[in-house]
């Protein structure tokens, strides 16, 4: 008896050790380039989140005046900045940016724990550990967890709300509804979405209907009212100016809705076989996001659950299926980071397939299972790392600018992420988001050099503005008195595929033009 207890203790300790090792590995991968170009805000999100957060601390005005994202993450960053300035007055901007990125790292690592707990609650510890390993190695999740962005945080809140949805299905206690509602409200207040509530409602129905309760009576249950009420209340507590500054909020939300309608990226033509957006997501977005092996295994996990445990299949698929249908029904195209909340669910489904159908079977199938596990891990870890591609390009451009553009030159830049030392150059940038590139602006300011980022080229495809696109073409052709002197390749994944379908899409992350003599 004592020997058996000792072996059980060792088994528990072994699983805890594996989880700690996975967490350490996740932390190392998410911090290794966290300080790269820390002196610059290198992404659009870092500008629009870091700027309002710092302004709130400096002015005391709690209105972020920015509603393309909800306010919860901005307030969280403001709180961290306030603490940092209390502890270390006069702290530099680069340190504040590092603080924001560190918060993303913590959200990313915490998600690994939550995914483990979901796998453990729904299935067993092995499934949880393998899913945690998959998400710790996922290159997109690593990228999102090392920058000041909302994505790592919203993935965490969505995963945590789903964990409590699992508890609702298992035991249906009041506190589970309350916690799930609160966390769903936090997820919605981090990045607009109502999808975290869908698994909770389905979990409630699965719990109630197993007792032969009628469907409509189950929907009228007071626990569902608590779930929805707590979610709405938390959203407006953490993003109050959506109501208090409704006019500004609705104008920003209209812009975001329009962007959602036309999509992000190139415009698919009706002749393109990928014009049906579901196919685009299935064959391009998700393989880029998680790797082909894990995607195949996740489809196998869906098949297994559909046969063996339909209730768990319905619950586990409720979020990804509803999100997939929504994302495929609106917009033109989507980039992979917009689907990042799907990563935990895909990792869980792939882990289920490998554990249930491969590793626990006969030797030859077990060997296939371990081979598949190796492939899934390898492709997750080695799939395209957007952070590496971007950072190499920024570094190359920064060095060239420093060595080739004369001191005190007048430089105009349009959505380029190359670092510019404002003490060395005269910077001119037109207003607007994105800033408007026009011939009148160039005549008025007469810059010596112009820097344009790929984001600016593709931005106008999102909103389908013809005039700026024509201006860009005229500028690049030399009609406006400028000539291209240097370009920096973005090393972007599937660049040829994009450019073949949209000639305006350029592989240059940064293009530098010089005024002709």
SSE layout and pairings?
Blueprint: H1 2-31, H2 44-59, H3 72-87, H4 93-122, H5 125-137, H6 139-144, H7 151-171, H8 174-190, H9 197-209, H10 215-219, H11 222-238, H12 241-244, H13 246-262, H14 277-290, H15 292-308, H16 310-329, H17 343-359, H18 363-382, H19 386-404, E1 410-414, E2 426-428, H20 439-445, E3 449-453, H21 454-463, H22 466-477, E4 482-489, H23 495-501, E5 508-515
Parallel strand pairs: 1-2, 1-3
Antiparallel strand pairs: 3-5, 4-5
Helix pairs in contact: 1-4, 1-5, 2-3, 3-4, 4-5, 4-7, 5-17, 5-18, 7-8, 7-9, 8-11, 9-11, 9-16, 14-15, 15-16, 15-17, 15-18, 17-18
Describe the protein in words:
- This protein has 517 residues and is mainly alpha-helical.
- Helices cover 67% and strands 6% of the residues.
- The chain is built from 23 helices and five strands.
- Strands 2-1-3-5-4 form a five-stranded mixed β-sheet.
- The radius of gyration is 25 Å and the shape is globular.
């Amino acid at each position: 008896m004592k020997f058996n207890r000792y072996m059980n203790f060792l088994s528990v300790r072994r699983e805890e050790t594996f989880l700690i090792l996975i967490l350490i590995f996740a932390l190392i991968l998410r911090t290794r380039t966290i300080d790269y170009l820390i002196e610059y805000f290198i992404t659009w999100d870092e500008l629009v989140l870091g700027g309002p957060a710092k302004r709130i601390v400096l002015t005391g005005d709690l209105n972020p005046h920015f509603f393309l994202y909800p306010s919860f993450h901005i307030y969280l960053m403001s709180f961290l900045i306030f603490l940092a300035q209390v502890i270390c007055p006069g702290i530099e901007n680069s340190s504040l940016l590092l603080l924001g990125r560190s918060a993303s790292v913590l959200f990313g690592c915490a998600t690994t724990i939550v995914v483990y707990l979901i796998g453990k609650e729904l299935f067993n510890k092995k499934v949880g550990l393998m899913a945690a390993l998959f998400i710790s190695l996922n290159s997109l999740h690593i990228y999102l967890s090392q920058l000041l962005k909302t994505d790592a945080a919203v993935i965490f809140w969505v995963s945590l709300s789903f964990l409590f949805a699992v508890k609702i299905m298992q035991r249906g206690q009041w506190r589970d509804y309350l916690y799930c509602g609160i966390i769903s409200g936090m997820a919605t207040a981090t990045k607009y979405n109502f999808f975290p509530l869908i698994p909770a409602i389905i979990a409630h129905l699965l719990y109630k209907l197993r007792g032969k309760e009628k469907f409509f009576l189950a929907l009228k249950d007071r626990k569902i009212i608590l779930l929805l009420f707590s979610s709405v209340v938390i959203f407006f507590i953490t993003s109050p100016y959506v109501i208090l500054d409704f006019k500004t909020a609705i104008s920003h939300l209209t812009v975001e809705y329009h962007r959602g309608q036309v999509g992000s990226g190139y415009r698919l033509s009706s002749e393109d076989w990928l014009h049906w957006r579901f196919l685009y997501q299935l064959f391009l977005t998700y393989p880029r996001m998680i790797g082909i092996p894990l995607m195949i295994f996740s489809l196998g996990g869906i098949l297994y659950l559909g046969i063996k445990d339909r209730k768990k299949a319905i619950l586990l698929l409720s979020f990804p299926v509803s999100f997939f249908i929504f994302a495929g029904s609106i917009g033109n195209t989507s980039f992979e980071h917009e689907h990042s909340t799907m990563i935990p669910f895909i990792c869980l489904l792939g882990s289920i397939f490998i554990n249930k159908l491969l590793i626990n079977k006969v030797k030859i199938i077990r060997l296939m299972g371990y081979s598949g596990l190796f492939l899934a891990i390898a492709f997750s870890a080695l799939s395209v790392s957007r952070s590496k591609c971007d950072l190499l390009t920024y570094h190359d451009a920064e060095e060239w600018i420093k060595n080739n553009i004369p001191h005190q030159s007048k430089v105009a830049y349009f959505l380029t992420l190359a670092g510019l030392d404002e003490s060395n150059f005269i910077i001119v940038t037109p207003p607007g988001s994105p800033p408007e590139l026009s011939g009148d602006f160039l005549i008025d300011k007469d810059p010596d050099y112009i820097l344009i980022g790929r984001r600016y080229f593709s931005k106008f495809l999102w909103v389908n503005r013809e005039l700026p696109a024509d201006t860009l073409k005229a500028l690049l052709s030399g009609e406006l008195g400028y000539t291209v002197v240097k370009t920096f390749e973005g090393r972007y994944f599937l660049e040829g595929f994009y450019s073949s379908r949209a000639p305006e899409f350029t592989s240059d992350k940064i293009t530098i033009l010089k005024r002709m003599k």
